[in-house]
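Progress report, Aim 2. The chain analyzed during this reporting quarter is listed below.
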Amino acid sequence: MEEVIPMDGFEFWTLFLIIRRKSELSSIVTTLVDSLEAKNIKVLDLYYNLYELNSIIDRVVMPLLSDRENEILYKAYTKGFFETPRNITITELANEIGISKTAFLKILRNSIKKLIKSYFSKVAT
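Predicted structure tokens for the chain:
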């Protein structure tokens, strides 16, 4: 679910469902409505759009990097680790974060690997 917007005593929900075949939609909608009405939630109207997954992937997939990976990568980027020549060493970055050089490198490499994998999976499609 992306959001719930309360307005004039009603709630407007935005839901994303990932299905393999359009034929599955009918049974999913019926199950959803029945489940809500069993909890005394009345469904007054229902609209839906069908999208290709690639067009909404950024809205429905969990963030690519963990908070820690994001922190490490952002710190390396903003401190100039990726500049030529580098403005900061791995040891200095690790000390600023308060972790070992080995741990810092492992997290940095993992985050870069995830970004590269994501990039090439999108380029290939």
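The helical segments are 23-38, 53-60, 67-78, 90-97, 101-124. The longest strand covers residues 3-7. These observations will guide the mutagenesis work planned for the next reporting period.
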